[in-house]
Amino acid sequence: MKAIGFNHPLPISAPQALLDLDLPDPEYGEQDLLVEVRAIAVNPADTKVRASAQPAPGTWRILGWDAVGHVHAVGTRVTGFQPGDRVFYAGAIDRPGCYAQRQAVDARLVAHAPAALGDEEAAALPLTALTAWETLFDRLKVEQPIAGAAPAIVVIGGAGGVGSMTIQLARALTNLTVIATASRPETVAWVRKLGAHHVIDHRQALAPQVAALGLGAPAFVFSTAQTEHYLPDIVALIAAQGRIALIDDPQSLDIVSLKRKSLSIHWEFMFTRSLLQTADLAIQQSILKQVAELANQGKIATTRTQCLGVINAANLRQAHTLLESGRTIGKIVLSGWNEE
Asked: Contact 320/332 with Cβ under 8 angstroms?
């Protein structure tokens, strides 16, 4: 099968950073599906692993954690799927990813793809939807109000993939006022289109802008990037006993300032359940089922903003370059394979 991988971490400017490969089809286990990949989306996780992971000598690392495809084969313990089913998933970070024509993936992490969306549109959803959902409902527990706080959430980095999905899920499933940050005219327009009630500029101090809205101190803050930089502002703007979530990887994070307000902080890592085989691993399938239903009902939209063409090393190097620029909006996808 065709695949794209690397055997040494390199800057994306190096031609060897991602290479076209010809590999055997993957083996699949009794709890797995073997999926023929039709479309994929590219995430910051892909670039981080590519830049830092060192595959074992003589092996290739295959990235990719957003895919739509058709089931080719079904493990003996799998129920609810059959060959030919169209599915979507993010998969597991410790297994070969979707930069390949065929991928083995734990069926408990997979759901039937939303019928209302095409392959490219659906491929943009799984990782960011799971991350946003788990942040809102498992980490921040936004359905549990905070006494005296405004029922509002500040989403720092609203135009990114996770921010884009967080805005939509918050609007579709909660009564929270959504305050998103964006700094360019095109990103401001994007987050407003997705449903943000208010947009503030993350290049300026956040706390005065939130105060000027007249809503009161928000109960929740979700920081998707540069948390170390924004933390003093977050502490200033959030309500006492509020809850903060983040997904980025600060080199250090001094949380002493959270004590005065009794703030809690929650790290969301979408791969925790699959990586550690938690008892509730299968909840990710349930989440994706609900995401598919919301998409079919038109309550959430794809966050795909560009397709770079077929799935190959050259196009993936371009996608990684764009992501590392820090200026992308929504999600980048690739679709199909060269015939030769």
From this structure: no
Other residues' Cβ atoms within 10 Å of the Cβ of residue 201: 13
Question: Residue 178: is its pLDDT beyond 90?
Answer: yes
Q: How far apart are CA 93 and CA 210, in angstroms?
A: 36
**Inter-residue contact 76 to 29 (CB < 8 Å):** no
Asked whether the predicted pLDDT for residue 340 surpasses 80, the reply is: no
Instruction: Output the six-digit token pair for 259.
Output: 């004590």
Element (H, E) at 191: helix 185-194
Per-residue pLDDT tens digits for 207-261 = 999 999 999 999 999 999 999 999 999 999 999 999 999 999 999 999 999 999 9
Burial of residue 261 (number of CB atoms within 10 Å: 0-12, 13-18, 19+): middle
- Token couple for 135: 């942040």
Distance of CA 28 to the CA centre of its chain: 25
The residues, ordered by sequence, that sit 6+ positions from 154 with a Cβ below 8 Å of its Cβ are 179, 180, 181, 200, 206, 210, 218, 220, 221, 222, 234, 237, 238
Between the two ends of the chain, the Cα-to-Cα distance in Å is: 12
The answer to whether residues 151 and 176 touch, using CB atoms and an 8 Å cutoff, is yes
Q: How do 304-307 and 331-335 pair as beta strands?
A: parallel
Report the distance separating Cα 38 and Cα 47, nearest Å: 21
**Closest-CA residue to 97 (of 219, 5, 207, 215):** 5
Q: Following CA atoms 43, 48, 51, 54 in sequence, which dihedral angle do they give, to the nearest 10 degrees?
A: -110
- How buried is residue 228: exposed, middle or buried, by Cβ count under 10 Å (0-12/13-18/19+)? middle
pLDDT tens profile 101-152: 999 999 999 999 999 999 999 999 999 999 999 999 999 999 999 999 999 9
